[in-house]
């Protein structure tokens, strides 16, 4: 894949970018670049192997864990989620199914409305963030949000839907959501540097997420202390390429399950792309995307299926990655034709 290094340099300087850029083609890493700081206050420079948060990119891990349970017969895509929710979240329509949640077509009310006029510096959690350590702990934050439209009527991106999926995972398996994802997705894919990390106890190789492009304001109080079904995985750029290859080689879910997950279920016109189950899809070509944006996180990883190429941008500030993402997206489109 051809990268215009001059244009990339300009994109890096625009916000400015802090994080990691990596391009892998097959078994070869053709670009690995790090910018900014892993920890600004201590002036620890970013490294190419840093663990950085994925925000909503993590939804693919939730979707894959759910599909593993579908393959095992513990869940069914057509099952109404009311069976496992019981009397919890009574405003969720009784006809909402697992498939509706996976495809963002459930119509349930969202605890984090991405269409609202919010700033990255806002404190949007309505319960103490230190209490959010399991999926069940999110229930008070999901309560009282009325249905927006009938299940299956249309696509509407919904964070609450993926937290509900995490609750279903906990109830169907009897273990925490984080342990379920580890056993069902992370370990089969061989991702040694990927997992959920507590924001208030990050290890030395994990990047602090910064709310702004300058200054030391960290995202610790803006997000759940331990991310859940809708976000929170930390990973490395190298592990992302390993993830895509494991996924497409059938080491996480079966080929039939994968075909269903990567089939376009919605045409998302305003995003100029399509959506499957947990994955964004290129508007017309065989390219898969994970994307995440949150306080202290700006992330995208794109995989070109035919050439086994992964292009990843992991930013540890809220908006710093987007000029770089846009520049590399243009290079991807040029390659795809």
Automatic annotation (TrEMBL):
InterPro entries xrefs: AmpC-like, Beta-lactam-related, Beta-lactam/transpept-like
Subcellular localization is given as: Membrane
Gene3D superfamilies for this protein: DD-peptidase/beta-lactamase superfamily
**Any one GO molecular-function label of the UniProt entry:** hydrolase activity
Family matches, as SUPFAM superfamilies: beta-lactamase/transpeptidase-like (SSF56601)
Q: What domain of life does the native source organism fall in? A: Bacteria
Q: Which UniProt keywords apply?
A: Hydrolase, Membrane
Domain named Beta-lactamase-related is located at 17-287
Q: Please identify the protein, giving its name as recorded.
A: Serine hydrolase domain-containing protein
């Amino acid at each position: 894949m051809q990268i215009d290094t001059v244009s990339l340099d300009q994109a890096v300087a625009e916000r400015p970018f802090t994080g990691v850029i990596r391009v892998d083609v097959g078994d070869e890493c053709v670009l690995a670049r790090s910018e900014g700081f892993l920890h600004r206050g201590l002036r620890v420079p970013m490294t190419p192997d840093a663990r950085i948060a994925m925000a909503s990119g993590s939804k693919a891990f939730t979707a894959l864990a759910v599909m593993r349970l579908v393959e095992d017969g513990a869940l069914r895509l057509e099952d109404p989620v009311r069976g496992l929710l019981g009397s919890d979240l009574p405003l969720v329509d009784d006809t909402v199914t697992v498939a509706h949640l996976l495809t963002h077509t459930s119509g349930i009310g969202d605890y984090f409305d991405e269409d609202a006029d919010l700033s990255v510096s806002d404190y949007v959690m309505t319960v103490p963030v230190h209490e959010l350590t399991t999926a069940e702990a999110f229930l008070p934050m999901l309560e009282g949000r009325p249905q927006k439209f009938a299940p299956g009527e249309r696509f509407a991106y919904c964070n609450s839907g993926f937290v509900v999926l995490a609750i279903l995972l906990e109830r169907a398996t009897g273990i925490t959501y984080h342990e379920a994802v580890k056993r069902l997705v992370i370990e089969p894919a061989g991702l040694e540097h990927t997992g959920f990390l507590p924001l208030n106890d990050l290890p030395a190789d994990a990047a602090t997420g910064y709310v702004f492009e300058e200054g030391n304001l960290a995202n610790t109080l803006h997000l759940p202390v331990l991310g859940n079904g809708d976000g929170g995985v930390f990973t490395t750029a190298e592990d992302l390429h390993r993830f895509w290859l494991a996924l497409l080689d059938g080491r996480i879910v079966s080929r039939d399950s994968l075909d269903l997950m990567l089939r376009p279920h919605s045409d998302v016109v305003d995003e100029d792309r399509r959506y499957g189950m947990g994955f964004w899809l290129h508007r017309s070509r065989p390219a898969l995307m994970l994307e995440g944006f949150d306080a202290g996180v700006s992330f995208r990883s794109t995989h070109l299926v035919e050439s086994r190429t992964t292009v990843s941008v992991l930013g540890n500030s809220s908006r710093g990655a987007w000029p770089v993402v846009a520049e590399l997206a243009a290079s991807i489109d040029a390659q795809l034709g």
